[in-house]
Each structure stands twice: as structure tokens, then as C-alpha cells.
Amino acid sequence: xxxxxxxxxxxxxxxxxxxxxxxxxxxxxxxxxxxxxxxxxxxxxxxxxxxxxxxxxxxxxxxxxxxxxxxxxxxxxxxxxxxxxxxxxxxxxxxxxxxxxxxxxxxxxxxxxxxxxxxxxxxxxxxxxxxxxxxxxxxxxxxxxxxxxxxxxxxxxxxxxxxxxxxxxxxxxxxxxxxxxxxxxxxxxxxxxxxxxxxxxxxxxxxxxxxxxxxxxxxxxxxxxxxxxxxxxxxxxxxxxxxxxxxxxxxxxxxxxxxxxxxxxxxxxxxxxxxxxxxxxxxxxxxxxxxxxxxxxxxxxxxxxxxxxxxxxxxxxxxxxxxxxxxxxxxxxxxxxxxxxxxxxxxxxxxxxxxxxxxxxxxxxxxxxxxxxxxxxxxxxxxxxxxxxxxxxxxxxxxxxxxxxxxxxxxxxxxxxxxxxxxxxxxxxxxxxxxxxxxxxxxxxxxxxxxxxxxxxxxxxxxxxxxxxxxxxxxxxxxxxxxxxxxxxxxxxxxxxxxxxxxxxxxxxxxxxxxxxxxxxxxxxxxxxxxxxxxxxx
Length: 538
Description:
By secondary structure, this protein is of the alpha+beta class. Helix content is 35%, strand content 19%. The strands form 5 sheets. A 7-stranded antiparallel sheet has the order 1-20-19-15-14-9-8. A 7-stranded antiparallel sheet has the order 7-4-3-11-10-2-21. It has a 3-stranded mixed sheet with strand order 16-17-18, with helices on one face.
């Protein structure tokens, strides 16, 4: 990858310039969090240390998308090798299909305590630090703890998220007092927070320091685990300290496909990053044509729809998947799916591969270490459950389970749900190019596909690749597009049977970051214009 060009004179450049550096770089959706990571780099930490500090800080400064009680995934490049970490937690032992049915549920609940699975993020932080970090783990929690203790100013993207969630939880509180802690924490004195306000989270600060002192042991097998257990017992919900004590994140081998000479990596299931790889596999032997042509966009849409249909049927906790990942990513299966694409939109159906609120961040350092990392509480603030006197906001990942007993993803004790958060990584000829990611629920694999194609197929620099107008398949033949999407292209797609819906608000189209490294070790980073993105560079 060659970054020695003037980005403003580049054919597909953004008016927002990419950022260059050499000693270190942290890119994420909040400037305060990025600065926390840069602080750690300047203290002698490596990219992994910086990423842990950034992740902890994001639980403080961007609670509209993640929290201490969430899940995480990471792709880590160290000494010319890529490692994968799955820090998503399983269903508690009491979370059975029968228990939910007895409580009157026919579909997985969305908010409150019942969809809360074991949070994996704190253990993920500790695991990354233990294996690859340089600085003491306790030191990595301190920038975030200071933000929480002293108070921080809400950035525009975060401030806009408060009103959307208030209405959601006001409806929930009528029937579920377990979410009262959310109001006590995030509406202090009943005040609706807004951009520019200062929020103090002293309980959150104390918890981060407790996690730091104990290397997250307190969260899973100590005082914090006892507090979580007591609160869930109070409301007769599923999660128990035994579930927390049994948890450990899992090191996994990343999955990959080669697209026109570039190796694109994702975390294997239970995440749905495989959707991006399946779509790339379908497209790799096709002529996409020029950027923003009908041919290019139509083929991307149809490939993504087919990949998503398969992922939503076959992706689950790999221990429960009947369909091997290798088969879903095989060339012959990609050819079968490719043959289904015609000149008009079609309703996607899964094939037969066997016959018989999220935050993304990335970091790099001068030693060559790079990390692609993502964590989430899902659906903004998550479940709405905040454990009293801890600041621990719990996720609601159990909502992604199925209650269909025939589904590979049917809810079961000790099983991890289908997961939407996915980090990405790009390499070529055994050398790292770098981490990338686009957060935002089911937009994520679609954003990954568009960013990879913008980069590899159309030669865009990182900022242009992120800025380019996006589309999103949302079901059946409905395609949402940004208001900046070319109007003539939208009309051509409409005539081909795609139901085009123009969305004025860019929030639903994902928020991403990229860091590429060239052969001289120069780092090139970019952040989304759709968020409060910031590249902190040294």
C-alpha cells in the first residue's frame, strides 16, 4: 500500500484529510478515549496497552454504545502473526428455552435483566494485557477512571444518544424496576444530558480501579461478582456469580479469504464477520466495473444479501453449528451462490452448504504491533440494567438468541449468542496492512464489505474509503441509502427491483476507523465523519 500521495488531489479523496504518524496511533469514535490511548503510548506502552486504555475510557465517555458489562472481540498483530480473541460471554446456566417460555416469552426479550449474558469485556482486557501488554494492567485503567471521577464533557455524537434512549427506558421502567439504576446513573437528578454537559461517574471510576487492581478477578470471582449476583437474585433473573466465575475468553484462529491478492481477516463465529468474507468470495471472480456504477453496486448488494441469509441461518456458537465454517467459505459454495445473481434484485434465501451500541477502535505502535478491537453493550445503552453502586451497565446480547428449537442459535445454557460486533484486518503477502472496522449492529459486515472494496477494488485512501456514501440492506429487497448517495444510481437500482429508501440521518450507516501501515512503517489513519471520530497520533 502506497500512502505517499496528496490526499486532496487523489481521485476519490475526502476533503477530510487522512492523518499520518510513525511512533503510534489510536483511532476511535471519541477524542477523549483516543487521547487516553495516546497517553499510554507515550508512557511506553504498546498498541495493545493503548487499546485497553481506550476501551476502558470508552465505557466512560461513550456509554450510549458500550459499558463495563459488555462483550468484546479483537484481532491482534504481533511479530508477524495475527491472533484472534473472542471475549463474548455465554448464556447463564439458568437461561433455558423452557425457563423463558414459562415466563411467557415466545421471542427473546429485549431489555431488562433476562437477555443479559455473561459480560466478556473486562476479562478480555485482562487477557490481552497478560499475553501482549507491557505496562501494568492497573495503570491502563487510570485514564478512564480519571475521566469518570473528575467528570467529562459529552461530545456531540454521544450527547445526541441520550434522548433516544430515555424514551426507550421510560417505557421499560413502568414494568421493570430493575432498570431504575440506569436512570440514577445517566439522568443524575433527573437531568437529561446533552452535548457539552459534564457527567461525573464516581461509582464507575471505583469499579475500573477495582478491575485494574485485581486484573478483572473481582468482576468474575470477587466483590464485584457478588454485587452483580445479589442484584440479579433480587429480581429473580438468570445471571449468577457461578456463571461469572466459570467464564474465560477464548483465543481463536482468525478466518480469512483472499480477495484479489489481499487477505481479509475476521473473527470466526459466533460473530457474523463471516458474512463479509462470504460476500467477498462471491464477488472475487466477478467484474464489478467502475465505482458507483449500477453493475458494481447491484453485485455488492446481491452478494451481501446471499451471505447474510446464510449467516443468519447457520452462524451460532461454533460448538452448536452443524455447518462448518470451511464449507461456508469454500470456493465451490461461493460459485453456487454467485450463479444465483442476475440483473434484478431477488429475495435472499439461505443455501444448502451441506448436502448430506458498539464502539470500534484500532491502534498501532512503532514496533509493528497493531490491534483491531470492538466492544459493545448492544442497542445503545444495552439492557438498561446498571448494577447499583458500581456503574456497571449490562449488555443485552441474549436478545440475539433464537427461541426456535430447530435453530443452531437457539438459546441454551453456556451457549454464546449470534454476535453482531466484528473487528477486521487486512494483510498482503504475509505482511500487515492494518486494522479496520465499522460499528453499528447488522450494518457492520456490510460496512466492512464496502470499506474493503473501496480500498482494494477502487484504490481509495482510508478517509475516502470511510467517507464514501453507503447503502444498507435491511430485509427483503429494501435498501437504505444515505442522502449523499448518487441519485441516478439509486434510480437505476430502483428500476432493477431494489426498494430504495433514502435516509437523511447518517447514524444507521455505521461508524468506523482505519489504520494502514506502509513498508516504511508510516501509519495512515482515518475516522468517520458520521461520529465524533478522532485519530490521536504520535
